[in-house]
Write a structure and sequence with these properties.
Blueprint (H helix, E strand, L loop, with lengths): L1 H14 L1 H12 L3 H18 L9 H19 L5 H18 L8 H22 L19 H17 L5 H17 L4 H16 L4 H21 L1 H16 L2 H6 L3 H10 L15 H19 L9 H4 L9 H9 L1 H20 L4 H20 L6 H16 L6 H38 L12 H9 L4 H6 L4 H19 L9 H21 L12 H21 L19 H24 L3 H13 L1 H4 L3 H18 L2 H23 L4 H29 L12 H7 L6 H9 L9 H9 L4 H18 L5 H7 L1 H9 L2 H7 L2 H10 L11 H8 L4 H9 L8
Helix pairs in contact: 1-3, 1-6, 2-3, 3-5, 4-17, 4-20, 5-19, 6-7, 6-8, 7-8, 7-9, 8-10, 9-10, 9-18, 11-14, 14-16, 16-17, 17-18, 17-19, 18-19, 20-23, 20-30, 20-31, 20-40, 21-23, 23-24, 23-31, 23-37, 24-35, 25-26, 26-27, 26-29, 26-36, 26-37, 26-39, 27-29, 29-30, 29-36, 30-31, 31-34, ...
Length: about 850
């Protein structure tokens, strides 16, 4: 009970922050530091009060996370000049989790009365301001002689209180005596659009709540009468603003853009004021006129905004009226980029739709009305760094969605939400990855020009092609997780990056043909990888304990044999890698152990929570570094635990995407942090993570397409057995391609080697289908295993597929051995394929909910 009251009071205080700042600054002379402390204390307290352990993430939450990530990337690419507005932006975003974590109704009586008290104090301050001479103040009331916008802030509080009252059980007679004078005072202060937004929101409430329509109609009438009384008290000023509105609404925007003087004459005639430089057609006392010019300028900047925008707070520097966009969606698009604006719109639409479906519930209807009102305000007054009300409304709406099922359809609604939640989160995460991938390529292009990572910037052609690649997203939504799913998404990341980069490539090959062929090849490979449903024949298995012990002994024995021939410590890019000569069979065994046995053993021990043995396996992997001088073994202790955590916490398909998103963000973020101090050191995380994980497979497709468009294909002679019988005009393909483009040993995936290099561009789809079918054997062999075990044990195998020929991955690097080990491993507890509803339970649940969902499934076998 106390927690509910505290939540309502602090929620009201957070929403009233601007009004409280007016009093603290105007009456007590406090500065921005006091406001920052106030916001941090209230927001932090609300987040602390949140019941986070009992909260399950929804589609809205993932859209919000994706939005914040996009904004963060934009800020990293375009660092803001000052930290004050950046701090306000962070606090504005923080309003979302502040409301999202609260599990009690927020818009109750305590919330309403706090707003009403602050608004009443604001009305007193406004009355005092109205008594002064307003002729030089554009007709607006200057509260405390400093704040002309304060009456609008106070009116927002009155509006929110009236919205709460309209859907609550308070009698109209009890509120008329308080509400009518407040509305009258603020109408006299020439507050206009706030009342328009309030009326439109009440219409939404009227449509959403049939049982409350008489009450809502009464409140609409009360507000209308009070507004009329207020504006008549200052009729001359009211007529002046009506003339402004008439002039602005009748003048097309194109006139202003083309430099028409129609508005110039009206501005001079009405006010006699000199406009600002370069704004000779804008009446600076006419808010509609100013917004028309601002919106037209923002629209003109959209094509150049691209993926990351022009930079936070940069629009005001380019605007002729030196003003913000005054529209949060437009500001997102212009300053933070088109993807951020799209995610912003999707987030708002998702919460609005969900609340509308649950509108018969009073709490949902209140959240719907508050969100509608805050959205309307943000479309006219919006500034993202000061839009805490909108983000608070989004957070409170997202908090209502999971705990209030629609009346009469509870069971069906729950089932549908469990289906839609993982699908919506998965789709938004894939789109987020696509955006981050492009940003990563753009940054890498500037930092690694020697790799032929062509400098790129959003163009209409590239953006259209990138958008068209979302055609593949539904395939990843309907497919179940498997080994093939992980390989399929890795291929998608490479082809998507190639499609983007090919628009900027300076290599001389048919770029359009290559794009279409590789997209067709991707589709051909995805069919067997995603949709094979065969069941393996398993007449016998081995005891897992004996298998683990045997594999561990083999790993140690091979390491001892390798060390006996000598070791080297040095640069993995130098010539020391070939300084020690070992038997070919031993080298193959070493590669198989690193690529297959070590990940398999770590997955086995970690699944059984035998952390000591799991840590020992990771230490064993690092011990192979002096043998192979390959930096991959140094990353194994980081990569495999990350995969284990992701697949333990998230639904497997979502974890597959996050396994790309999180490292890319870490690489970009570390690069941005280190670059001001050491540009050279900053290249290491970007090159090790972003370039190696995603960039190299993309570059390989570009370079192989260029090389084999001017040279004969290999006809698979790069495979050792084929080379032995038929010979080959090429040596090893990796060094051959690297020598031409001066990029080192450039091995590549089967799309480039078994595809472009072996059969030529036009036959890539055929080769891709065959290779995908071969890899689907891994899907069949692991069908009876747990998704987490599959993902972790193939954590290096999937990377090998993207960076070496398929024949090399299967034979030399142990992928075929891993398939055999999967086939020999007994069935595991979570091997039964989940239905969509089960996936919905497991994807966003933890603790008791997850345990209930897991034990609810039948037909499981105990893990040995």
């Amino acid at each position: 009970m106390l927690g509910n009251i505290a939540s309502q009071i602090m929620s009201a205080l957070l929403i009233s922050a601007n009004s409280v700042a007016v009093f603290s600054h105007g009456m007590f002379g406090l500065g921005s530091t006091s406001t920052a402390i106030y916001l941090i204390a209230i927001t932090g307290s609300l987040i602390w009060l949140g019941k986070w352990r009992s909260i399950s993430l929804t589609v809205a939450d993932y859209l919000a996370i994706a939005l914040f990530v996009c904004c963060g990337l934009s800020l990293a690419l375009h660092p803001p000049a000052g930290y004050k507005d950046l701090a306000l932006l962070v606090l504005s975003f923080a309003a979302y989790p502040a409301a999202r974590g609260l599990t009690t109704p927020l818009y109750g009586q305590k919330f309403m009365w706090v707003l009403a008290v602050i608004a009443a104090l604001g009305a007193v301050a406004t009355i005092l301001a109205l008594r002064t001479d307003l002729s030089a103040l554009h007709g607006k009331a200057m509260v405390f002689d400093k704040y002309p916008h304060a009456p609008a802030q106070f009116t927002i509080l009155v509006s929110l209180a009236l919205l709460s009252i309209s859907l609550a059980g308070v009698r109209l007679r009890k509120i008329a005596a308080v509400a009518a004078p407040l509305v009258c005072i603020f109408a006299a202060a020439q507050v206009r659009f706030v009342f328009i937004a309030l009326m439109l929101t009440l219409v939404v409430g009227f449509a959403a709540r049939p049982a409350q329509r008489l009450r809502i109609m009464g409140i609409i009438g009360l507000i209308a009468i009070s507004i009329c009384v207020g504006v008549l008290l200052r009729s001359s000023t009211t007529l002046k603003f009506l003339r402004y509105a008439e002039i602005s609404l009748l003048s097309p925007i194109t006139e202003m853009v083309q430099g028409s003087k129609g508005i110039e004459s009206s501005a001079t005639e009405i006010d006699g004021k000199l406009p600002l430089q370069d704004c000779s057609q804008v009446n600076l006392d006419n808010s509609i006129d100013i917004r028309k010019r601002i919106y037209s300028q923002a629209a003109a900047l959209l094509p150049s905004a691209g993926l990351s925008g022009i930079g936070f707070n940069e629009f005001a520097k380019r605007s002729c009226v030196d003003a913000e966009v005054h529209n949060s969606v437009l500001q997102m698009a212009v300053e933070f980029g088109l993807p951020a604006a799209l995610l912003f719109v999707l987030l708002i639409s998702s919460v609005l739709r969900s609340l509308w479906l649950q509108r018969r519930n009073t709490e949902a209807a209140l959240a719907l009305c508050v969100l509608t009102f805050s959205l309307l305000m943000s479309l006219v007054y919006g500034r993202v760094s000061e839009d805490g009300l909108l983000f608070f409304a989004l957070g409170s709406g997202a908090a209502v969605i999971p705990r209030l099922p629609s009346e009469g359809t509870a069971l069906m609604g729950n089932a549908l939400r469990k289906v839609n939640q993982p699908l919506g989160a998965l789709a938004s995460t894939i789109i987020t990855f696509m955006v981050i991938n492009i940003v990563s390529m753009m940054v890498s292009a500037h930092m690694f020009p020697a790799m032929h990572f062509w400098p790129s910037w959003p163009t209409i052609e590239a953006m259209t092609a990138a958008t068209a690649m979302t055609f593949f997203v539904p395939l990843f939504l309907i497919a179940r997780f498997s080994f093939g799913y992980a390989v399929a998404f890795s291929l998608f990341s490479a082809v998507f990056g190639f499609v983007w980069l090919s628009f900027f490539s300076e290599f001389d090959y048919p770029h359009s043909t290559a794009r279409w062929v590789l997209v067709a090849g991707l589709l051909a490979a995805l069919v067997p990888l995603l949709f094979v449903r065969a069941v393996p024949i398993r007449p016998w298995t081995v005891r897992p304990v004996l298998l683990r012990a045997l594999l561990a002994l083999i790993c140690v024995a091979v390491l001892i044999a390798d060390v006996s021939y000598g070791i080297q410590f040095g640069d993995p890019y130098g010539d020391l890698r070939n300084a020690v000569i070992r038997p070919t069979a031993l080298s193959y065994l070493t590669s198989i152990i690193i690529g297959a046995l070590i990940p398999y053993l770590f997955a086995s021990f970690a699944a059984r929570k035998e952390w000591g043995f799991a840590a020992g396996i990771l230490a064993l992997s690092v011990s192979f570094y002096p043998v192979v001088l390959n930096k991959t073994v140094l990353l194994v202790p980081l990569w495999l635990p990350l995969l284990f955590w992701l697949y333990s916490r998230f639904e497997p398909r979502l974890a597959t995407i996050l396994a790309f998103v999180i490292p890319l963000l870490i690489g970009l973020g570390t690069f941005m942090l280190l670059r001001p101090f050491s540009p050279y050191l900053a290249l290491y995380p970007l090159g090790t993570v972003n370039l190696r994980l995603v960039g190299v497979p993309i570059l390989a497709l570009d370079q192989y397409a260029d090389f084999f468009s001017h040279n004969p294909t290999t006809h698979f002679c790069q495979i050792s057995i084929v080379r032995r019988f038929f010979g080959c005009m090429y040596g090893e393909l990796g060094p051959t391609i690297g020598a031409v483009h001066h990029t080192g040993n450039f091995n590549a995936s089967f799309l480039a080697t078994e595809g472009i290099a072996s059969v030529g561009l036009l036959l890539v789809p055929v080769s891709a289908f065959v290779c995908g079918s071969i890899l689907s054997v891994g899907t069949i062999a692991s069908r009876h295993l747990d998704a987490r075990f599959i993902a972790v044990s193939s954590g290096l195998g999937v990377q090998l597929i993207m960076n070496v020929p398929l024949s090399t991955a299967l034979l030399s690097n142990g992928l075929g051995v891993l398939f055999l080990l999967w086939w020999l491993t007994p069935a595991q507890q979570s091997a039964v394929e989940l239905t969509q509803v089960d996936a919905g339970l497991l994807a966003f649940s933890s603790g008791p909910q997850r345990l209930i969902a897991e034990h609810a499934r039948s037909g499981q076998m105990k893990v040995d």
